[in-house]
Structure formats: structure tokens, C-alpha cells
Amino acid sequence: MSTVIYYFSGTGNSLHVARELQNRIPDAYLIPIVSLLSQDVVKTKAKTVGFVFPIYITLAPVPVRKFMKKLDITSTEYIFTIITRAGTLCLAHYYVESILKKKGRSLDSHFILNMANNSPTGIKPTQGDQNWINELTKEKIAEMEYAVQHQLDLIQKIITNKEKYPEKGFSHPLKTFFTNLLSCITDNIHTEIKFYSDETCNNCRICEKVCLSGKIKIDYRKPVWQKNVHCFYCYACFNFCPEQAILVKKIYTLKNGRYSHPEITVQDIAGQKQV
Ligand SMILES: Cc1cc2nc3c(=O)[nH]c(=O)nc-3n(C[C@H](O)[C@H](O)[C@H](O)COP(=O)(O)O)c2cc1C
Prior knowledge:
Elements: E1 3-7, H1 13-24, E2 28-32, E3 42-43, E4 48-54, H2 62-70, E5 71-72, E6 78-85, H3 92-102, E7 109-114, H4 132-135, H5 138-160, H6 173-188, E8 195-197, H7 206-210, E9 216-219, E10 222-225, H8 236-240, E11 246-248, H9 266-270
Helix pairs in contact: 1-5, 3-6
The structure holds flavin mononucleotide.
The site of flavin mononucleotide has 27 residues, from helix 1 and strand 6.
């Protein structure tokens, strides 16, 4: 296999992007990052390696950061990232660049795609955005998808030709310092999102299936977010619950709709845990 795309996706945007890119690069192979987290070292012989993942509060998700450190890319010739986000500041590529630098490597290209915001608290963590789902109209999602498809056509060409992108690079010592500091702090501070399920929970166990960190266990027919397991903050439980029974205490208690990428299923998300 000459191209490997490692991906992480809570609600399907990043998985959709990874799949669409795979459709454009015939020899590309997709590997879920979550399935490799228990390994100490991950070695790849792929000539081209890509990472596709969302940002959480400007940064790469913690499992993505952990994975990057484990990855041995000695035989890789070309490295890229595609980051999906709702549209605010992205610092994650500075972190990726730092990790690669420690391995004597560098990002050859990096791309940021704007997609649907998958959570009411992602961008407004302390108060939640009560209007979040109303902003995600069918038209807006279709518009974003159109732009993504167009961008992926260009991205595929850049990757296949092993070009540099952006051509001038993106070195920024202050942003890199700040990103690494923030990443270091958030690697070790595990803020709990106060998820709970209300009385409409019907014990379908979908939340447990899609929980990428394994934090949710069903106990007496109700989901329990175990205190000793760190949440990945992916919002899969919240968004895939068919009853919208999962809410965030005091911050988002509305049952007015949820978001997951229309082409991505519960099985697709849960499948990331399969080794
Ligand atoms: C906890 C959390 C934090 C987020 N923070 C940001 C952010 O800082 N900026 C942004 O543009 N989007 C943010 N988002 C939105 C996601 O990055 C975006 O919806 C992404 O495409 C989701 O990808 P996925 O469906 O593959 O999980 C956040 C989402 C979550 C769940």
C-alpha cells in the first residue's frame, strides 16, 4: 500500500473526507486512529501518509496527538493533514509540525476544510450555542459539501504530485509555542463534559457503541459516563442518540435536532474501535 490515511471522526465529517479522498487516490488505504491507540509503536511502510481529523477548541483531539507520537514514519516520503472544523481558528497543524520535527520530518502539505459544526458547545464551551442546530440548514450543509468536493479535487492533485502546500510553508514560532503549551496543558487536564441521559432513553445502546473512548457503559439500562475513563469530546453519543436523550447539564438541554454527517452511520463510527 503506498498511501495510508489515518483518520479520527466523532460525527462523520472527517471520515467522509477521508473516504472521498480515498475514492480519488486509487491506492489509498484508510486506517482508524482509535483502533491503534493501544499499541506502543505504529510502524508504516506507506510512501504517503495522511491524517484527517477535526479540531476541538483550535487543537487536535487528544487521541490524535497520542497517535502522532507513536507513529514511525521512517520510510514515508510525503506527509499531509486535512483538518475539518466549523470555521474558527485552527492551530492543530502547528502541533503536528512540532511532532514531526522531533522525528526529523515536516508536513509537506496541510489543508483545512470548513464543515458542519457538530456540537453546541464546541465553539462556545461554557454557555453552549442554543441556536446551533438551526444554523445547520440543509442548504448550508449542501453548500459546504459542494465546496468540500471541489477542494478535495485540488487536494488530490497536490497529494498525487507530492507538492508542497502552502508553497511557502506555514512556520510561525509564536503560534507553535502557544499551540504546544496549550496541547501540553490539555493533555493533562481532563475536563468533564456533563453529559446525562433523560427519561426518553430507551436502552438502545447506540451511545455505548459509538463512544470512541469507551467511557460510556450501560448500567441498569442507562448510559453511565465512567469517571476513570477520559472522554475524547467527540460528541458521537450526543449526536447519534435517536431519541436525543443525551443532553449537557445546564449548557444544552434542547431536543431540537442533532448533527451527524448524512453519509456516515453508527456502524461506521463504531467501526473505528475495531482492531
Ligand atoms: C469539543 C469540540 C470542540 C470543537 N471546537 C471547534 C473549534 O475550536 N473550531 C471549529 O471551527 N470547530 C470546532 N468544532 C467543530 C468540529 O471541529 C467540526 O464539526 C468537525 O468537522 C467535526 O468532525 P467529525 O464529524 O469528523 O467529528 C468542535 C467540535 C467539538 C465536538
